[in-house]
Amino acid sequence: MKIRKIYSDEFKRKIAKEYFNGKKATDLAKKHELSGGVQQVYAWFKNFYPDVYYNMHKEKQGSQKNIMKNNENQDKKQIVELVEALEESQSKVKTLEKEKELDKQLIDILNTFQEFINSWNVFKISMYNVVNTNRLTLF
What we know:
- The chain is mainly alpha-helical.
- The protein has helices at residues 9-20, 25-31, 37-48, 50-138.
- Residues 69-106 form a coiled coil.
């Protein structure tokens, strides 16, 4: 069983005053080997300087609210940026889909042209053969 130390009011006030004057609660708790640690320092400070303690907490809460508000604003800004990036990506996708469709149409046109060229070559060869055959029969 741990033995609890009993501290005088004068000692408690001294620790609270040191904390009030800017010393760190962790340093005070270690230096004086307080059984309650930093929480003991905070409790004594709250007891001997209640107005300061509550004002500090209000400021802390206010700054926490400001931090939350800033985080919320940053989140909103990030959402706007992400939405803009998404819209830009969707626009690029639509453009690429149109280009793909145009490429398909161009391929169809080129295939049709190639078929025409092949047919034309076949026609030329057959006409050449007809002309040569007719020449031979004439002589």
